[in-house]
Structure formats: structure tokens, C-alpha cells
Write a structure and sequence with these properties.
There is one protein chain. By secondary structure, the chain is α+β, with helices and mostly antiparallel strands. It has 4 helices and 10 strands. The strands form 3 sheets. The protein has a 6-stranded mixed sheet with strand order 4-3-10-9-6-5, with helices on one face. The protein has a two-stranded antiparallel sheet with strand order 1-2. A two-stranded antiparallel sheet has the order 7-8. It starts with a strand and ends with a helix. The N terminus is likely disordered.
């Protein structure tokens, strides 16, 4: 498996490489210089993280915003640029934002999975994604509009499924700072 590493001041973020098709675990281990990542989680009730990555890649490549919207749950959804605070957006706003940007053919940078979360990172969006306010206890307009051409689709593991909860408008290393 190809890995993508991003370095920032004392921090290394390792992303599993995006695939054009789901990767089945090999029955026979192969020698590799790359670090060994945990195998994707699998539940009988829902898709694996690798299947979600593949679905998302297909929806982006085929410019299908409805396929991406289908990954949303019945939860509030929003954009964030830092780990806390964010901007709430409606399903309709997200759909319009996707439709405006999918023709730019963004590329999958990689993904990170742990027991409870999945992050799928895409770069080269045009126009850049935007945030105009940040909400924590209350919403405040940003002094300057935040722009990002790299975004992470952030999923939470719910019983039997991965649910898209937010779009992180920053780079993977920005998520961990």
C-alpha cells in the first residue's frame, strides 16, 4: 500500500493512499518497506471505511453530488477550519457548493481511519471552499473569509454505518495542530 506523509513542525501525518477500487486484505503477507496499517474495520451491518473511500472517490470523479449527500446522516452538518468551531450549512447549501466545485476534478490525497472516525482528504478544488463565520457558543463573522483548496470529509462511526458529519477546510496537518 502506498502511503502519503505530510510533515509539519515535529508532526508527521500518514495518510493511506486512495485507491481506485477497494483493497481486499491479502491472505499472504508481503514484505514491504512501508509501515503496516491496521486493516479496515468491517461490520456485517455496514460498509467498511475502504468502501466509503471508494464511494466518495467515485462520486467526486463522476461529479455526483447526490451520492455524497447520501453519506450525510440526520445530524447537523458544517464546515470547519480548525478543530473547534465551525459554520453550519444546510443540505441544500452543501449540494450547491459541491455542484460548483466537482467539475474542477479534485484528487484524493489520502485517508485516515481509526476505530471511531474516518477522514478522506481531497485537494485541488476550484473554486476554493469558503467559510465566512465561526460558531462555537455563538456565531461570529470571520475578519477575513477563509479559503481552502484542500478539504477533509470527516465521518463518524455510528452503529453499522459511517456518517459524514463535517467538511474540514484545511490540510491534514492543519487538522492535527
Amino acid at each position: 500500500m502506498r502511503l502519503v506523509a505530510l510533515w509539519t513542525i515535529g508532526l508527521t501525518v500518514v495518510l493511506a493512499a486512495c485507491q481506485t477500487a477497494p483493497v481486499a486484505p491479502s491472505a499472504t503477507p508481503t514484505a514491504s518497506a512501508a509501515p503496516t496499517l491496521p486493516q479496515p474495520t468491517n461490520t456485517a451491518a455496514g460498509p467498511t471505511a475502504v468502501e466509503i473511500v471508494s464511494r466518495l472517490q467515485d462520486a467526486v470523479a463522476l461529479q455526483q453530488p447526490l451520492d455524497i449527500l447520501a453519506l450525510l446522516g440526520d445530524y447537523p452538518f458544517g464546515y470547519a477550519m480548525h478543530i473547534e468551531g465551525g459554520q453550519s450549512v444546510t443540505r441544500q447549501e452543501f449540494s450547491a457548493d459541491l455542484a460548483a466545485r466537482l467539475p474542477s476534478a479534485p484528487s484524493c490525497l489520502g485517508y485516515v481511519e481509526d476505530e471511531f472516525t474516518l477522514q478522506v482528504w481531497f485537494e485541488n478544488w476550484s473554486p476554493a471552499w469558503e467559510m465566512h463565520e465561526s460558531c462555537y457558543a455563538e456565531c461570529e463573522p470571520l475578519a477575513q473569509t477563509w479559503y481552502s483548496t484542500t478539504v477533509g470529509f470527516l465521518f463518524d462511526k455510528e452503529p453499522g454505518e459511517w456518517v459524514l458529519k463535517a467538511l474540514f477546510l484545511n490540510t491534514p496537518d492543519g487538522y492535527y495542530l
